[in-house]
Records
---
Amino acid sequence: MRDSVRSLLTIQCSPFLSPLSYNRAPSGDSASSLLTMKAYMCVICGYVYEEEKGDPASGIVAGTKWEDVPLSWRCPDCGAGKEDFEMVEV
Ligand SMILES: [Zn+2]
């Protein structure tokens, strides 16, 4: 409620300032997003790799960051490589 009023005011009073206020919010969260586990979806079959869970069946322990997953790792469902995965919001 309060946020919608504020953004309305921002747009009406100073439209040139609104991009700045939009940029400020996500950058303030950057520190906490470093601690957030991400998930990556196979664009071919829809399998989702979650860093929080890893892929123990393939020897990837829970909590393994996507960048630490070896390039030799393959999608357990369709065999696609890491290049066929896209980051998704969880
Ligand atoms: Zn797949």
---
Amino acid sequence: MNRSLLSLVAVAAVDSGACGARAASGTTVIVTPDTSMTNQDKNKRVAQAAEILNNSDIVCFDVDSTVIREEGIDELARYCGKGTEVARLTKEAMKGSVTFQDALKLRLDIIRPTQRQIREFIKSHPSTLSPGIKDLVNYVRNNGSSVYLISGGFDCLIEPVAIELGIPLTNVFANKLLFYFNGEYAGFDTNQPTSRSGGKGDAILQIRQIHPESNITMVGDGATDLEASPPANNFIGYGGNVVRNEVQTRAQYYVTDFRQLMQPDNCTFKNLNQNNS
Ligand SMILES: [Mg+2]
């Protein structure tokens, strides 16, 4: 099945009520997802999502479970022998009223990764790119748009991913781990916007300060990505690695395969005379 046909089928599935309701532009979608649906069935308004992407000046991607298949902090915790403890804490944090920054601190206080562990972890556990992301990033850039990575993860784990995708490190927002001179863990930089609740939205506001008229789209799997719009103009949910029901329910646009967003037939191929990064 070719891509445009695939999109039409997906949109038809939404229209026919498979996802519970069809959203008008600008409205909030309240639907109850059918847990028996396959990931493919969970797509929402795919053709419109592709159009939104084509019309974006800046596309910001979440990293963990979006650009890459894994959750970096969980993988790092497992590598440092603290996987179970951290997973338990994450579960508890999600139930209660722990702020993002406190949850991050609690988990890092358990892992306490040294600089050497980080180096060895990156070498032995390179991140796995999600299917189609490399082509999608190139597609967005060829359309004259800029690509950013906005992550609640750590810059030392994300930079190799940015380099692999050809994204300048100046276009990366992520948390920064701090180390003592002997390489022991010393904490994290609490000045980074992504270290706080609502931080991805703050990162987008920073981008908007530099590019005030830009049409900005956030793409991600998580609630923090969804909540970054606004200030992002649009949000496209991604469920290719994990489908989070809250996000799939609330997102106006949802795809489970990045290749669904590449529809060159609809592409306007903007020529903005801007930095093609
Ligand atoms: Mg994520």
